[in-house]
Amino acid sequence: LLDLVPTAGYPGSDALFTVGLNGAPADVPALPTGRINASTPQDILAYLDKVKTFEALPPDADWRKNILHLSGGRSASELVLFKSLVESYGRRARTGSLGGAVTMIPKKTDAPTETIDLSGPVNAGVGLLTFFGHSSLATTDLDFGLASDDTRNYRNRGRYPLLFMNGCALGNFFFGAQTIGTDWLLTPNRGAIAVLAHSHLGTLDALDRYATQFYTLLGDSLLLNQPIGVIQQETIRRVLSQNPGPADVANAHQLVLQGDPALRIFPFSQPDYAIPPGGLTITKRGDSVQIRIVRVNYGQFRAGTLPVRIRRTSSRVTETFVFATKATVFRDTLTISLPNGAGSPAEFVVTLNPDDLATNPPLPEASRANNDSRLTVDLSTDQPTPLPPDRTAPLIEVAFDGIRIADGAVVSPAPRLDVLVADDNRVRLRQDTTNLDAYLAGETGAFRRVAWRGASYQPADSQNVFRLRYALAALPDGRYRLRLTARDADDNAATPYEISFRVVRQPQLTDVRVYPNPFSTQTTFAFDLTGEQPPGNISLIINNLSGQPVRHLNNPIRIGRNEWAWDGRSDTGSLLPAGLYLYELQTGGFPVNTSAPLRGRLVLAR
User: What is the pTM of this model?
Assistant: First the structure.
């Protein structure tokens, strides 16, 4: 046992190691001091793992502000007195900066001990568990047992409270025997992260003055988020500055901290308002809509006005309502009634403490990432039906000069792009080019963003189909790649549209094809044109075997692929008989590639 750290004095105290040093007042420790009552390396590793888990938790863990209060007593008068003392601590915890959710469990009988089951609240998570009653090294008169006792069913991994035990001897881990506090501290993966308990005989008045001051500091916005050792240090300083008598000095020295004094039990310095998952519900009542909002403050409580904004969108109409409400302490429910004048379905977006209001300036806050909640509902029935969140990505379609092209196709040097973005969300309609981007790259270069300058567009219709028209700047000969991306109002990303195309400025007709051949109902004449402008006139003449023209096709033409269909009818609309026909593509002097057949035979099979 030579490697263990001895106590300072008797009854045992760790505060005495540094009281009065380095300018600290007499009987006030100069350094926050805690002890881990470990006797094996396994004890150290078990506690270290709990500390790592505890410190990795986000400040807004929803259980931190849950406070569990226990009161004991062994007579009728003590039951009433101890309960009233603990209730006074609860009032401070609720109304100060902590803004805690306090649960009180008093002892009900004057029996020496009364067993209670705390596995439910402890496993759900409490930040602080305070006891005021009779205790010894291994018992409390309101008996909640050992964390290591599997029959107690404590399974609170990652949700470790501070135990603040106001009684006798429960902190006397110097004595040698295992204490409740040591068991809760060193049991792996369950129990407590720190224990503040008396090492000898606690007196009622001194314990109460210390606990009252401790809870006063938890209501101080500047001290609440300080390490537990600093809060203990400041509690001692303030108590002894007003009550310097021997009972309070002994109590201050003998309330010993087990655990790391650098841990912050309540590590938040500002409020953190949020709407939890499922915290927004909407109902109808007559000609109004009832909006029920569950609000949570995961951080400090600051008295003041908390603005709440509701945006209701149906089709193209968006209405905004702003309300001034009391700031949330920990958790509350707000019900707001709006006239049921919008169409259906309607999307409701509720924002707590919005930071972009000209009036109702926002309160300071740790994070705004959790301030919004949205719900889309069908208001056409008496019971509004929530619609599932939009998880469907939009669809992008693109046409070049009026047609959808194949990858690698030839287009005009300055093609006109017709972009269509379709989405199945019928509430949040696309109004402009926000989150719709185009990028163009040469054959070897990197993509460069295309500015939509000069584009014309139509805001989405009731089917949420958005249309845009844009003419690319004239391009030199070469191969290019075009990429379009889009996100809808719910940030669902469309599959990117990407295609390659070619620009050939030399005018030429190439690659004439007829398919199918033979045909029975319809065949297609296809040919490609390159150049800067399409020719003025290209026509197709179909003759019978006697050389008589039976059909003339003279369709609009474009640079790139042209496809003309023939249904086997004459110019007058009559069905032609089955047989062999001759076709000729007349180009009006437009240059023709020598490999492009302008004449051929065609078989019509009925």
Answer: 0.71
The DSSP letter of residue 222 is T
Inter-axis angle of helices 228-242 and 246-254, to 10 degrees?
170
Say whether 34 sits in a helix, a strand or coil. coil
Sheet containing strand 465-471, edge to edge, reads 395-400, 416-422, 465-471, 456-458
Say if residue 518 is preceded by a cis peptide, omega within 30 of 0: yes
HSE-CB of 490 using CA atoms within 13 angstroms: 21
Task: Give a yes or no: residue 24 inside a domain.
Answer: no
Per the CB < 8 A criterion, the answer to whether 311 and 348 are in contact is yes
Residue in this structure with the two tokens 């007042």, named with its chain if needed: 25
Bridge partners (DSSP) of residue 112 are: none
Residue 291 corresponds to which amino acid? I
Please measure the distance between the N-terminal and C-terminal CA atoms of the chain and give it in whole angstroms: 107
Neighbours of 303 (CB within 10 A): 11
CATH number reported for the structural domain that contains residue 322 in this entry: 2.60.40
Q: What is the mean pLDDT of the chain?
A: 93
Beta strand 539-543 with 579-586 is: antiparallel
For residue 512, what is the domain's CATH number?
A: 2.60.40.4070
Q: Using CA atoms, how far apart are residues 493 and 423, in angstroms rounded to an integer?
A: 11
pLDDT in tens, 545-588: 999 999 999 999 999 999 999 999 999 999 999 999 999 999 98
**Tens digit of pLDDT for each residue in 284-326?**
877 888 999 999 999 999 998 999 999 998 876 888 999 999 9
77-86 pLDDT, tens digit per residue, is 999 999 999 9
**Domain extent at residue 462:** 395-503
Q: What is the CA radius of gyration of the chain?
A: 40
Report the C-alpha gap between 120 and 155 in whole angstroms.
9
Coil vs helix vs strand at 562: strand
- The set of residues, in sequence order, having a beta carbon less than 8 Å from that of 513 and lying 6+ positions away, is 525, 526, 527
- The answer to whether the bond into 496 is cis (omega within 30° of 0) is no
458 near 422, Cβ under 8 Å?
no
Pairing mode, if any, of strands 114-115 and 142-143? parallel
Asked if 593 contacts 510 with a C-beta cutoff of 8 angstroms, the reply is: yes
Phi then psi for residue 42, to 5 deg, are -65, -35
